[in-house]
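FW: tagging you since you asked about this chain on Friday. Here's the raw sequence from the shared folder, copied in full. Didn't touch anything.
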Amino acid sequence: VQLVESGGGLVQPGGSLRLSCAASGFTFNIYALAWARQVPGKGLEWVSRIRSDGSTSYTDSVRGRFIVSRDNAKSTVYLEMNSLKREDTAVYYCAARKGWGIYRIDEYDYRGQGTQVTVSE
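HL: got it, structure written out here
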C-alpha cells in the first residue's frame, strides 16, 4: 500500500493550492479517505474525509474553503484549498481505511508521508 501526496508549497494568504494523493496497492473505491494536518509540537488534526459513497465532511475551520474529492479511476484523492490563512500552515497527510463508515483519523490504516503547505507573505 502506498499513498503519495503532492501539490504543497508556499502560497500567500488568500491564495489557493490543490493537493493530490495518489494511491496504489489496494482497492481504492471501497476505501474511506481523509486529509489531516500537523504542525510542529501539536497532534494530528483531522481536516476532511470522503467516504466510499462520495459523501464528505470537514472540520469547522476549513468548511466553505476546502473541497475534498476523489477520482476512483485514477486512485487519487484531492484537497482543493481556497482562501488560505496563515493558520492553515502545516504538513498535510492523506489517509485510507477500508470500509463504508465514518472513522476517527487515528483509525485509518494507511497514511502518506505528507506534503508541506506554508501560507505566508
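FW: The first strand starts at residue 2 and ends at 6.
HL: agreed, and Residues 50 and 56 are 4 Å apart (CA to CA).
FW: great, closing this out.
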